Amino acid sequence: MNRAEYMRELAYLLQDVPDEEREEALQYYEDYFDDAGPEKETQVIAELGRPEKVAAIIREGARNGYESQDAEYTENGYRNERYRG
């Protein structure tokens, strides 16, 4: 999977997230890829994990207002300890 495929899949999986939050999340991950550069695309995908996992974390954060005790925003995006692995 490359960046374009990853982002296309993530966008598809986030269709049920409110527009503003979906656009912010997608822009965050586009910026993350941009900051890493094309030579680290594979590494970024490995760090982020499967798009399904990222989408689940984003959806949960949107539902809970990003206030969960197990969750936090990091330089790698919104993380929730319940989704580790």
Describe the structure.
This protein is mainly alpha-helical. Helices cover 60% and strands 9% of the residues. It has 4 helices and 2 strands, in the order H-H-H-H-E-E. The protein has helices at residues 3-13, 19-36, 41-48, 51-64, and strands spanning 71-74, 77-80. A two-stranded antiparallel ribbon has the order 1-2. Strand 1 and strand 2 form a beta hairpin. Helix 1 runs antiparallel to helix 2 and helix 1 packs parallel to helix 4 (51-64). The model has no long low-confidence stretch (mean pLDDT 84).
Short description:
The protein is mainly alpha-helical. It has helices at residues 3-13, 19-36, 41-48, 51-64; strands spanning 71-74, 77-80.
pLDDT under 50 segments (min length 5)?
none
Whole-number radius of gyration?
Answer: 12 Å
User: Strand fraction band?
Assistant: 5-15%
Question: Which percent bin holds the helix content?
Answer: 55-70%
Largest sheet: 2 strands, antiparallel
Chain oligomer state: single chain
- What's the number of extended β-strand segments? 2
Strand and helix order:
HHHHEE
First CA to last CA: what distance? Answer: 19 Å
Structural class: mainly alpha
Shape: elongated
Provide mean pLDDT, rounded.
84
How would you write the strand order of the largest sheet?
A: 1-2
In DSSP terms, counting alpha (H) and pi (I) runs of 4 or more, how many helices?
4
